[in-house]
Amino acid sequence: MANKDYYNILGVDKKASADDIKKAFRKLAHKYHPDKGGSDEKFKEITEAYAILSDDKKRREYDTYGQSFAGSGPTGGQGNPFDGFDFSQFQGQNPFGSGFGQDGMQFDFGDIFGDMFSGRGGRQQAARGRDISIDLEIPFKDAVFGTTRSVLIAKVSTCAVCSGSGAKPGTELETCSTCNGSGRVHETRNSIFGQFSSVRTCTVCGGAGKIPKEKCSECKGAGTKRKEEEITASIPAGIDNGEMIRMPGQGEAIKKTSGHSAVAGDLYVKVHVKPHTTFHREGSNLVMNLPVKLSDALLGTSVSIEMLDGKTIEVKIPPMKRVEELLRVAGKGIPANRGKGDLIIHLEVALPHKLSNKAKEAVEKLKGEGL
User: Fold this and answer.
1) Contact, 246 vs 236, CB < 8 A?
2) Which pLDDT score, from 0 to 100, does residue 57 have?
3) Which of 103-107, 150-154, 170-174 has the highest mean pLDDT?
4) How far apart are the first and last CA of the chain?
5) % of the chain residues with pLDDT over 90
6) Beta-bridge partners for 290
7) What are phi and psi for residue 113, nearest 5 degrees?
8) Dihedral through CA 60, CA 64, CA 69, CA 73, nearest 10?
9) DSSP code of residue 183
10) What are the φ/ψ torsions at residue 301 (nearest 5 degrees)?
11) Among 145, 138, 146, 211, which Cα is nearest to 178's?
């Protein structure tokens, strides 16, 4: 059988870098994925090409001899097309999604390769509980100055009786019969590329290799129990509507296993700020509208403004030159990283709806003055 042009299959130059080859493969793998209407044969072909060109030794042999002699490579027509394939580059993601086996049954590549995508060399990661989120509505004033709020939430928490071990207090642990104490389970699956073996964390013992000889009567061996718990959230000063507060370790708990760290998830609090009748915010500035009488607009005046903290400030309004003006009072806004914002007052001349005869006479005199 004639040798295949792997560079042409991936659409890259012979001088292409390893990164260029990886990018080309990912693009083609998504394009020809069988589950997206692509061709099984084409998908196998580009995977075979990447298995050779991504391995420095096999690539050198291919460039020299036109085929790879490292092990039973794909060009020999007998080997596994994933020989030399580095799945760890896809840590934290499934590059393929689901596909179809030789018998037409759908399967999941992530399910086949299992822990191969979780890190290099099957390295175990700390077990972690589920993150949860809640919504919290607070008054505008509390958003400006900060506050603390206690909320009652139902979540999975560590069992208070067994402290999360799942075992009856004072009892011993015994070897897990599912994994024979290894904490890992070997599985073999069939796919369109042949047979694959994977190693997974034992779901019975959670990777500890030991299980309780007698289960905790409170949580029935789960190590956790769903219950209501009061959480106190600290709302920082100056928080804006829609912002999230992350509370590490306040999410849902998981069962503790000997020799393996198990941490609770996080709690995310989404803050909703109620609108205020007088003020609103623009960044770190506190903004309000203030109608000004025509006479005050012409002559200037002073007004008393009650702030959010209950204190009153006197603001001097100079004679206005336009019907709408802005007045800035420094340092009376919302707390920010560097001090406070300002109070911005939108001044707008309020025209009277009806004039008395005396007022009309006064306006006529102003008109006579050219005003």
Assistant:
1) no
2) 84
3) 150-154
4) 100
5) 34
6) 347
7) -85, -20
8) 70
9) S
10) -165, 180
11) 211
**pLDDT tens digits, one per residue of 264-322:** 899 999 999 999 999 999 988 999 999 999 889 989 999 999 999 999 999 999 999 99
Pairing of strands 267-273, 279-282: unpaired
Instruction: Output the CA angle 120-126-127, nearest 5 degrees.
Output: 120
Provide the 3-class DSSP secondary structure of residue 315: strand
**Count of CB atoms situated within 10 Å of the CB of 360:** 10
* Helix, strand or coil, per DSSP, at residue 73: coil
CA dist 79 and 256 (Å) reads: 42
Tokens linked to 284: 């770190």
Contacting residues for 156 by C-beta, under 8 A, at least 6 apart: 129, 130, 224, 225, 226, 252, 253, 254
> Which is nearest to 51 in space by CA: 71, 37, 36, 31?
71
- Cα–Cα distance between 71 and 80 in angstroms, integer? 10
Residue-averaged pLDDT of the chain? 79
Q: What is the largest CA-CA distance in the chain?
A: 109
Cβ atoms within 10 Å, residue 343? 22
Is the model's pLDDT at 135 over the cut of 50?
yes
Amino acid code (one letter) for 258: S
Q: Tens digit of pLDDT for each residue in 35-46? A: 667 777 888 888
CA 73, CA 82: separation in Å to the nearest integer? 9
Of 283, 346, 285, nearest in space to 315 by CA:
346
Per-residue pLDDT reduced to its tens digit, 15-34: 899 889 988 988 888 888 77
Q: Where are the alpha helices (DSSP H) in the chain?
A: 6-10, 18-31, 40-53, 56-65, 109-113, 140-145, 294-299, 357-368
pLDDT value at 84 more than 60: no
Cα 114 off chain centre by = 23
Q: Which two tokens stand for residue 311?
A: 């204190």
